[in-house]
Amino acid sequence: MRKIVVSVTDCGNPPLRATSSATVFVNLLDLNDNDPIFQNLPFVAEVLEGTPAGVSVYQVVAIDLDEGLNGLVSYRMQVGMPRMDFLINSSSGVVTTTTELDRERIAQYQLRVVATDAGTPTKSSTSTLTIRVLDVNDETPTFFPAVYNVSVSEDVPRDFRVVWLNCTDNDVGLNAELSYFITGGNVDGKFSVGYRDAVVRTVVNLDRETTAAYTLILEAIDNGPVGQRRSGTATVFVTVLDVNDNRPIFLQSSYEASVPEDIPEGHSIVQLKATDADEGEFGRVWYRILHGDHGNNFRIHVSDGLLMRGPKPLDREQDSSHVLIVEAYNHDLGPMRSSVRVRRAAGQLQSQAAGSPASPPALPSGLGRGHGWTAQSHQWVPAGQGCR
Q1: What is the mean pLDDT of residues 296-322?
Q2: pTM, whole model, 2 decimals?
Q3: What GO biological process, any one, is recorded here (predicted)?
Q4: 351 vs 269, 302, 348, 358, CA distance in Å?
Q5: Does domain 249-356+365-382 have CATH number 2.60.40.60?
């Protein structure tokens, strides 16, 4: 509404002004010539995941400077936008969830909001409401696979990389930051796991003969809020593979038997026995006479260690004493071998007892029978030297 005051003056000379005036009231009719204007868009709203359906997350405000229906604004979401998780009230502009939000499913929404007036023809404006779904610690660390089977040779060095564990947490930030621990099966402390890299390594040397297999329980814990942290576990089966690191050991330090000089060929004299703590081919023991059988009077079964009379008969009058050096080994060229000394005297075959007058001198410090040393001519020399 506009108020106009009109007064009249003639064109004479001198001009005379009218003594009265008129007031004119002008009513301007509105045309729909203004678009709705958003007051608070574009905008980024943040909402915690897990927010249930029916919760208001934001209120859109738009104004239209026209009046009446031309200035009456309504709201809607643009067709084709991922709006199914949200609704907007057409009159108030309040945006409400329609489902529980899950950041791992959709982490961010770009909602295109349209504000339209009621004029003829209608005018509208469009802007964007970004809804960012904030993470909560609702995901558990998961190993893939959950069970690992690995084999490691017992001679691997310290800090050897045994296995790398694959573990993921679908959360983000600190909620997805994982720390790793061995929580079971590592009673002797042979293994460690990287606090951050999930790599299982050896701490000290392994020994299959002591422990042939380990069942390690690995745990991953996220760095979520205290009291809300989540963890997952994996099992690592470690099989320790054998290497040939043990010598055959004779069960006795000496053997003795009494035999007549007319014992027939092939007749058993004494059973020698050695064992090897290794397994498989590395633990198989073979026997041979290294020294002392100059006249081919003896032979030994290569696999069971039975000492027998050989092709040539015994003759006490010719040789009243025999000293045999018998070796147990598990590879013809390998270092893992041990030997034992046998002596025949006065018409019988017997071992030289420790402490008897004819006993050899004591072994050098740190050495002993069954550890690759041979007693020969009262001097201890390495097995195989001078005995071929």
Answers
A1: 88
A2: 0.70
A3: homophilic cell adhesion via plasma membrane adhesion molecules
A4: 12, 20, 10, 11
A5: yes
